[in-house]
Amino acid sequence: GNDNVFVDNLLVRGESVIVAPEIDVLGNSTSIASGDMTPSTLDATSFGLVAQGAAPVTATFTIANNGNAPLALSGSPNLVAISGSSNFTITTQPATASVAATASTTFVVTYTPTTAGLQTATISIANNDSDENPYTFDVSGTAVELPNVWINEISYDNLGADVGEFVEVAGTAGFDLSTLSLVLYNGFDGTSYNTTVLAGTIDNEGGTGFGAVSFLIPGIQNGAPDGIALVLGGTTVLSFISYEGVFAATNGPASGMTSVDIGVTQLGNATAPVGSSLQRNNSVPGTPGAWFGPADDSPGDLNVFVSPGVTITQSGGTTVVAEGGATDTYTIVLDSAPISDVTVTVTPDGQLDLGAGAATAVSLVFTTANWFTPQTVTVTAFDDAVTEGPHSGSITHAIATGSAIVYLGLPIAGVTASITDNDGGDAIPPTVTGVFLVNSAWLPGGQDPFDGGGAGAGNGIGLAVTAGLQIPNGNLNRIVVQFSEPVVGFSTANFRLLGVNTADYAGVLTVSYDAVTNRGIINLSTPLNRDRLRVGVSQNVTDAAGNQLDGDLVGGAGGNFDLLFSVLVGNGNLDASGVNGGDLGVFAAAFNQSFPSGTYNINADWNSDGSVNGADLANFAANFNLALPGGTPGPLNFGGGTVPGAVYSPAVDAFFKNLGDKDDLDLLAGGELF
Question: How far is residue 234's CA from residue 183's CA, in Å, rounded to a whole number?
Fold first, then answer.
């Protein structure tokens, strides 16, 4: 009955508790083992493929302390060190050197893809973890040349239920598409909703060095708007397009970017039947073209063809008709094959008749079989009884309703027809009222160049040329032919400049006509010098009434204009012995004289600048001891055989006065500019 309890031997057992930090580093919330030398996109240690020269790419890593004692980061001078490629930098260091138990801190690595190819760096974190000090792992990135690839065709919203939705990517043949992805974006909130990693290699279509590959992607959203990003290496956006509007991406590789609207749409109606798409027209292989459509889809084809268009070709480059007389024609043809018929409505105004009556339209139908065959429009002037003189009529063109979709609304150039009136016309032929030489650098000055020398005005223009005249002045590279009235047909075919040293100047001149002043203008690539010359204008030049040129001033209409003269720069005394010491007397008598001095002599102003000075001697020296060639320029030939002409009458030059008068001096001094 003893109630006492005795304990003889008491043994107490227990386990020791280790107090220590435990470091772990994470990327994309995935643990990275210390010593890891195989970068991966899963834990953000691989930056993947990035276009060389593109904007820097960053990755944020977390240093976690999974232990029960503070984790001390002891790196110096930086808590996190990096070695290896200089393309990698630590742009944000951890905020603290002591990480409490179960706490964490972060740092940021930036990859700047300046060096081509694979680049690697090692991250090192000195710390007080007993078995992971330092904590190391590798990061890598590959800078690649920006590839020539683009989104080439899409189909997202055909008539009825969407079928066969796809995106086509085009680019350089042989390119490995596995480096690319297509990221689809919702335009409502800017977020991505689908990523398709591509596969395969771009083919070489037609030996162009480029090709296209299409990818079926069911469920492409219908707008408005939505978009698609073409992405290299998961990070670099090569293009970010949208349809039915623009928006800014809010996540994914295109985050912060604003889309580019392609400008064409599929609206799920009759304009976008099943089998249609929106496409680029790559008229130059390798260069992304403009978007168009909807049109027949062509997945897997590069789409190298000409954009829809209509070409108008006028016979002879113009359309010229006459009341009660000549008709003219032009042609119309499509530039590219339509997917259905295209009707062009051709509408004349009241001055013209296209076969259905004045001001009455006609229609031309182009089919998928004949679209490339030009169709001819015959233009006739409406023969009224109204005296109108030379006038014009206009023709417009439009694509008719119901034509192929891609042609609807396409602008087409009009045609203007010149019309000769047959009511009250005169029988007076045009004539040449003067020929003169100028320098093309003399530009319009606002004065009337034919004012006859009145005070305060233009006071004439140019060196007026008369029969047999010798001209001692240089820098003259423009010939101007003045007609008595408006003329038709002044062109290279109806003008000749012939010589002895240069038999035919056709290869060094251009011809134009100024309808405002009734002048033919001939520009030479080099100034005239040291040649006997013949200027000819064909009698085939006519006035609006059809009267031929009266070039010889004899016997009414019909007669080529024919003028002989010569140019020998420096021959100031105009003698037959050429350029020699005798010409210096003319120069000395006028030396240091400028227009309008009474002693200024135009024949001594050999560079035609309005002053007689040392600068003229260079022109003199260039021709010293030279004389005009012997002989006469060849005869005129205007296509119908040699037609005798008449030597130009000096009387015709009365309008221009005489060589060396005030009109001519004024020009050479720069007072009148042409």
Answer: 9
193 class by beta-carbon count within 10 Å (0-12 exposed, 13-18 middle, 19+ buried): middle
Radius of gyration of the chain (CA): 43
| Cα–Cα distance measured from residue 588 to residue 599, given in angstroms and rounded to the nearest whole number | 11
498 token code pair: 């012939």
**Residue 522 neighbours by CB distance under 10 Å:** 21
CA angle 421, 425, 431 (to 5 degrees): 110
Banded pLDDT at 206 (limits 50, 70, 90): confident
Q: Please provide residue 347's backbone torsions phi and psi, each rounded to the nearest 5 degrees.
A: -120, 115
Token duo for residue 548: 């031929």
**What pLDDT is stored for residue 482 in this prediction?**
86
**Phi (first) and psi of residue 590, to 5 degrees:** -110, 5
- What HEC string does 259-317 produce? CEECCCCCCCCCCCCCCEEEEEECCCCCCCCEEEEEEECCCCCCCCCCCCCEEEEEHHH
Dmax (CA) for the chain in angstroms is: 174
Q: Residue for token digits 């409502």?
A: 188
Place of tokens 């400008």: 263
Please tell me the distance from the alpha carbon of residue 614 to that of residue 636, in angstroms, as a whole number. Answer: 40
What is the identity of the amino acid at 484? Answer: S
495 touches 549 (CB < 8 A): no
CB contact burial 545-583 (16+ within 10 A = b; e otherwise): bbbbbbbbbeeebbbbbbbbbbbbbbbbbeeeebbbeeb
Q: Are 354 and 362 in contact (CB under 8 A)?
A: yes
For residue 352, the cross-strand partners are 381
- Write down the pTM of the prediction: 0.41
CA distance 239 to 229: 6
Which pLDDT does position 559 carry in this prediction?
Answer: 80
pLDDT for 555 equals 63
Best CA proximity match to 674, nearest among 435, 434, 446, 514 = 446
Q: Are strands 509-514 and 561-567 parallel, antiparallel or unpaired?
A: unpaired
- Distance (Å, whole) CA 646 – CA 468: 13
Query: Which tens digits make up the pLDDT trace of 317-347?
Result: 999 999 999 999 999 999 887 778 899 999 9
Strands 561-567 and 531-537: antiparallel
Rounded distance, CA 276 to CA 434, Å? 66
The model's confidence at residue 458, banded by pLDDT at 50, 70 and 90, is: very low
* Contact between 241 and 259 (Cβ < 8 Å): yes
The residue among 568 and 282 whose pLDDT is bigger is 568
Distance of CA 370 to the CA centre of its chain: 31
In this prediction, residues 32-58 reach a mean pLDDT of: 92
Please give the distance of CA 87 from its chain centroid, rounded to a whole number.
39
Q: In the numeric block, which tokens belong to residue 279?
A: 């496409």
Cα–Cα distance measured from residue 54 to residue 257, given in angstroms and rounded to the nearest whole number: 14
Q: How confident is the model at residue 98 (pLDDT cuts 50, 70, 90)?
A: very high
pLDDT at residue 236, as a whole number: 86
Cα of 249 vs its chain's centroid, Å: 32
Please list the residues that pair with 564 across neighbouring strands: 534
Contact of 167 with 300, CB cutoff 8 Å? no
- DSSP alpha helix (H) spans, 443-551: none
Residue type at position 155: S
By the 8 A CB rule, do 211 and 286 touch? no
Contacts of 516 (CB under 8 A, 6+ apart): none
Find the length of the chain.
674
Q: Which helix (H) or strand (E) holds 238?
A: strand 236-243
